[in-house]
């Protein structure tokens, strides 16, 4: 093998671990879980968008960076938004499944996974970060009598 090929191979082998993304389950750690309890059900307090991007579904409020301007305009067909699949309605039940920290090369991100437990999208796993990040309860309320 030529000297330059050996150096190239060695460079690739050494750089491979630096590009890894790791995840750590922090579902039970109140520092990360947005005050949500895994297994608990929450009711949506308003309509939100169902977004699908790069194989991941997420719920996004109308004021989210990733969503169109208004739910009404989307429902009326006035907005054609590439990654929005539809609307998840006010009153829909979400069940918290998992909270984890994803470690990238340059930063970490806390991710909260929920499952839609009622309505036409029942059973779909979704990221709910945009609904819980501010902890105000603006988008979700706990279903009474439902705690793990």
Query: What overall form do the CA principal axes indicate?
Result: globular
Instruction: Determine the N-to-C terminus distance.
Output: 60 Å
How much strand content do the residues show?
A: 25-35%
The rounded Rg comes to: 20 Å
Structural class: alpha+beta
The succession of helices and strands, N to C, reads HEEEEHEEEEHE
Average pLDDT level: 79
Give the tally of structural domains: 1
Biggest pleated-sheet summary: 6 strands, antiparallel
State the share of residues found in helices, binned by percent. Answer: 10-25%
Number of strands: 9
Low-confidence stretches: 5-17
Tally of alpha and pi helices: 3
What does this structure look like?
By secondary structure, the chain is of the alpha+beta class. The chain has one domain (21-142). The protein contains three helices and nine strands; from the N terminus they run H-E-E-E-E-H-E-E-E-E-H-E. It has helices spanning 3-15, 71-75, 129-132; strands at 22-25, 41-44, 48-53, 56-60, 84-88, 93-103, 108-116, 125-127, 140-142. The strands form two sheets. Strands 1, 2, 6, 7, 8 and 9 form a six-stranded antiparallel beta sheet that branches. A three-stranded antiparallel beta sheet has the order 4-3-5. The longest helix is centred in the first third of the chain and has 13 residues, at 3-15.
């Amino acid at each position: 093998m030529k000297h330059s090929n050996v150096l190239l191979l060695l460079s690739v082998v050494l750089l491979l671990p630096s590009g890894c993304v790791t995840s750590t389950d922090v579902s039970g750690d109140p520092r990360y879980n947005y005050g949500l309890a895994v297994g608990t059900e929450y009711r949506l307090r308003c309509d939100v968008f169902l977004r699908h991007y790069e194989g991941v579904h997420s719920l996004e409020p109308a004021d989210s960076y990733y969503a169109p301007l208004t739910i009404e305009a989307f429902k009326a067909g006035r907005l054609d938004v590439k990654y929005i699949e539809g609307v998840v309605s006010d009153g829909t039940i979400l069940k918290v499944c998992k909270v984890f920290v994803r470690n990238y090369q340059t930063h970490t991100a806390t991710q909260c996974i929920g499952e839609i437990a009622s309505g036409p999208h029942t059973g779909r796993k979704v990221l709910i970060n945009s609904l819980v990040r501010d902890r105000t309860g603006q988008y979700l309320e706990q279903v009474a009598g439902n705690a793990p």
